[in-house]
Every structure is written in structure tokens, then in C-alpha cells.
Write a structure and sequence with these properties.
264 residues, mainly alpha, 0% strand
């Protein structure tokens, strides 16, 4: 976004003077007001505009790890993982142990297809933050780097923090399947799809887990609301192709496990 457009956005809500060197307004106050506005814009979902405003705040003041993290998160939400990674790295230059920056960098690296790098960042971030998103993203990185047993442990921690979330439970079941614990994965998916809150993606995961467990006939008997038979057979065929992949990391990549959680 150009500074011209940013001026228009700010002027439209009555604070265009923030972009000029108003003699009556201290720099610190200007930066604080701009940051509050950027946070509000970000929360309303206009992440690209918010990112431009965070950049402006950085130009007006000294380097700040906190603002760089906000900028990185806005860029992530705007679908710009490479630019987000730059902001998180800038924050880590200020504080190498800053957990939110490590979490953001690891998330950006996952989205950029760099699971080994993501694993290094998230292994430090997840225990420090102890959040659903932290453990889920660490679990995804571990699965994508061929560590399914460790992925199970990470997803288990995420589920412990929010035990009613069906997507988290499904991720855990998929990790268990990758780790070869088919009985546990199948039982978990049956429990998930028994919930009245289960959605189509959860039934698809159940079919996948059953096929990976060698229970293709059982997969054909799964009742999926509003799913034609031809679509079911297509899902089973896709699952069989995935089951033929020998390596755990390659299977995880085919599963798209890094994107399975709505928190990534």
C-alpha cells in the first residue's frame, strides 16, 4: 500500500494530521495513537492497511520488537508470509528470545514450505507461550519433518488446552495415524464424527484414517451426510494413494497437516 492511500484511510476517519509533523503533537503521542488505530483496523480484518500503518509507526519512532511482531502478524493475516518473516526477524534482532516473534517466524516458515526452519523456531516458542496455536504449529512442523511421535505429543498438549475443539482432536488423530497408532486414531475419529458439531471435513478425515489403518471396507460404510457415492469413492481412492506413500514426512505433506488447524 502506498503512503498516499494510507493518508486517505487515516483522513477518512479524521486523523490525517498524524502523518504530518504537527508541532503541537508530541512524537510519542502520535505513535501511540497510530498504533491504537492500526490495532483497530487489524481487528476489523483490513490486515494490509494495518500493516502499512504499523510500518508508518516504525518510521516515526525507534525500532520496536513489539511493533515488528504486530506488523508480522498483520502480514501473515494478509497472506504475505515472506514479508511477515522479515518483520519477525527484525523483532528477534531486538530480543532473540521473544516468544511471540519466534511463534510468528515459525508460522511464516511453515507457510513458506520450510518445515525444518519452522521446527527450530516453534520448538522454542511453543513451551514459552503454551497456547493452542503454538502447540498446533509445532505439531505440524514435527509431522512435516518426519517426527510423528513428537507431533502426537504436541497436538495432545493443544487438545488439553481446548478439549472441545473437534479440529484439534482431528489433528491429533491424524498425527496418531502417521505415527502408526491406528487403533487410537480410528477410535478418536469415530468419537469426533459422533458429535452433532461434526462437519464434512471431519468425516473426510475419518475416511482417511480408516483407509490408512487398512479398513477400506469400513470406510465405505461411513455415513456422511449429503455425500454422493461417487464422491465417497473419490475420497477413498485419494486416501489409498496417500497410504501408498512410504515416508511419514511425505505423508504429512500430502495430508496438508500444516494447514489442518484453523489457528495456522
Amino acid at each position: 500500500m502506498t503512503h498516499c492511500r494510507l493518508k486517505c484511510v487515516l483522513a477518512a476517519i479524521g486523523i490525517g494530521c498524524l502523518l504530518s509533523a504537527c508541532a503541537a503533537t508530541p512524537t510519542g503521542s502520535t505513535e501511540g495513537r497510530l498504533l491504537k488505530l492500526a490495532d483497530d483496523v487489524d481487528q476489523r480484518g483490513d490486515h494490509a492497511t494495518a500493516a502499512a500503518m504499523y510500518e508508518r509507526a516504525l518510521e516515526q519512532g525507534e525500532a520496536s520488537a513489539d511493533i515488528q511482531v504486530r506488523l508480522g502478524n498483520a502480514r501473515l493475516a494478509a497472506g504475505e508470509p515472506a514479508a511477515a518473516a522479515e518483520a519477525f526477524r527484525a523483532a528477534l534482532h531486538e530480543d532473540i528470545n521473544l516468544a511471540p516473534a519466534l511463534l510468528g517466524l515459525g508460522t511464516a516458515q511453515l507457510r513458506l514450505g520450510e518445515p525444518e526452519s519452522a521446527l527450530r523456531s516453534l520448538s522454542r516458542a511453543a513451551p514459552a507461550i503454551n497456547s493452542v496455536s503454538g502447540w498446533s504449529r509445532l505439531g505440524a512442523a514435527q509431522a512435516l519433518t518426519g517426527r510423528p511421535g513428537q507431533a502426537v505429543a504436541a497436538f495432545d498438549k493443544a487438545v488439553a488446552l481446548e478439549p472441545r475443539d473437534l479440529d484439534l482432536q482431528a489433528n491429533l488423530a491424524l498425527a496418531e495415524s502417521l505415527a502408526g497408532d491406528n487403533a487410537k486414531a480410528v477410535a478418536a475419529m469415530r468419537q469426533i464424527t459422533a458429535s452433532p458439531l461434526a462437519e464434512a471435513r471431519h468425516y473426510r478425515n475419518q475416511i482417511l484414517v480408516l483407509v490408512l489403518a487398512g479398513q477400506t471396507d469400513e470406510a465405505r460404510r461411513v455415513e456422511i451426510p449429503d455425500l454422493p457415492t461417487a464422491k465417497r469413492e473419490s475420497l477413498i481412492a485419494s486416501a489409498e494413494r496417500l497410504a501408498a506413500i512410504p515416508g511419514a514426512a511425505e505423508r504429512a505433506q500430502a495430508l496438508g497437516l500444516a494447514m489442518a488447524s484453523r489457528r495456522d
